[in-house]
Every structure is written in C-alpha cells, then in structure tokens.
C-alpha cells in the first residue's frame, strides 16, 4: 500500500519501507515538507482518479453576494501578487502588493483571537471553504482560481499541521531552528535551511524568506 502526502506529493511505500504506515508513530512527519501523518492519504487508482467530481451548484449573479472584509481582500491581493511574481509580472505584482497593504492597514483588531479560534478557522477552510470555491471554479472552467485554490489549500493544511504540532510539543518545537516562508505561495517550513524546492509551487530555495520572531519583553 502507498500513501501520498496531500501537501507535497511525497509517497510512502510500505513495500519499500518494510513497515506499515499504520505502525508509524503519530509524531511522524513527511520527510520532504514536514506535514503531519494525518495529512497522508491512500494512493488512489488511476480509475478512481478519472471519476468525475460532482458539479457545484451554479452561481447566480447578484444572489448571495457578501461584502468581503478587509482581511480577506488583503489575503486575496497578496495571493494575486505572488501569482504575478511567479509569472515575472513585476508591475502587476507591485500594484497588488500596494492594494494588500492598503487592506491590511484597514483590518480591525480581532478580539478573543486564540489558537482554538485559529484551529477552527483552518478546519472550516479545509472542510468546506476550499472545496466550495474549487467546485465553483471547476464548473466555470476558471483554471487560475483552481490553481490558487490548490496552493491555498496545501498551505492552509501545512499551517494547520504546524499549529497542531506546536500544541503537542510547545516551545521545544521551535527551539534552535528557523522558520522559512515561500514568498510565492506562502508555504511555511520549519528547519535549519529552506527546502531546495518549494513542495507546493516548486520555486527554488532562494524564494524563501526567513521570519524573525518577536522579541519577548
């Protein structure tokens, strides 16, 4: 049996590893991207992959519209900027970054925000948010939005995994190591050096930026 990392695509082959995937400890992580064991899924057969996904409900103009908050608009513009950077459209990337900065400055302080709230929001995005948007984009044939959803879902999954690992291990998880963020897709990697290639968007290591932790008072 083979199991595939839903973030980077690494394959754990039980036959080659001489150990059943179920026998691996829950603390085991993907050797390539650091994703938790829970993010691995059984490899699907080619026949199963060819099955057509259920069509999403059609989106009607002017129905169920909502005003997006500043934080969502900031994230959207930031993602669009990264997409432009990947296509070497520096001018467009700069404009989207400017918009992202404008909306970021308008984000109100969030009261009662804690790790439990963040955990719930991650779970909601992974369980309902991304599947809904991906379904609508697939129905509309919007390849650009589909790519954004693929990247966004994988980045959200790794963030959720890292947060849960931090909950289990505490500050020891981040002691004597570095945190790297892909400047193109936002993938987060914990380790002494960034991965040679981003597991999500496949850009080289020099596209990663090292984050600086906040100084304790």
From TrEMBL:
Every Rubredoxin-like domain range: 2-43, 177-211
Cofactor(s) in the UniProt record: Fe(3+)
Keywords: Electron transport, Iron, Metal-binding, Transport
Pfam families to which the protein is assigned, alphabetical: Rubredoxin, RUBY_RBDX
Signal peptide: none
InterPro entries: Rubredoxin-like_dom, Rubredoxin_dom, Rubredoxin_Fe_BS, RUBY_RBDX
GO molecular function: iron ion binding
Domain of life per record: Bacteria
Name assigned to this protein: Rubredoxin
Native organism: Candidatus Lachnoclostridium pullistercoris
């Amino acid at each position: 049996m083979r199991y595939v990392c839903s973030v980077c695509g690494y394959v754990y082959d039980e036959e080659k590893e001489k150990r059943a995937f179920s026998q691996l400890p829950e603390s085991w992580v993907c050797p390539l991207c650091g994703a938790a064991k829970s993010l691995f899924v059984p490899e699907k057969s080619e026949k199963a992959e060819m099955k057509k996904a259920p069509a999403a409900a059609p989106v009607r103009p002017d129905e169920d519209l909502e005003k997006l908050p500043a934080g969502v608009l900031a994230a959207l513009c930031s993602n669009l900027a990264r997409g432009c950077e990947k296509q070497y459209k520096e001018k467009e990337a700069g404009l989207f970054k400017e918009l992202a900065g404008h909306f970021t400055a308008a984000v109100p302080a969030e009261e009662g925000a804690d790790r439990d709230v963040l955990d719930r929001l991650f779970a909601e995005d992974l369980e309902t948010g991304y599947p809904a948007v991906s379904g609508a984009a697939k129905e509309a044939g919007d390849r650009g939005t589909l790519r954004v959803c693929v990247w966004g879902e994988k980045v959200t999954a790794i963030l959720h995994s890292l947060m849960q690992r931090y909950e289990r291990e505490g500050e020891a998880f981040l002691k004597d190591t570095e945190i790297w963020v892909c400047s193109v897709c936002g993938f987060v990697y914990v380790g002494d050096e960034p991965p040679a290639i981003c597991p999500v968007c496949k850009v080289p290591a020099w596209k990663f930026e090292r984050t600086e932790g906040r100084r304790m008072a």
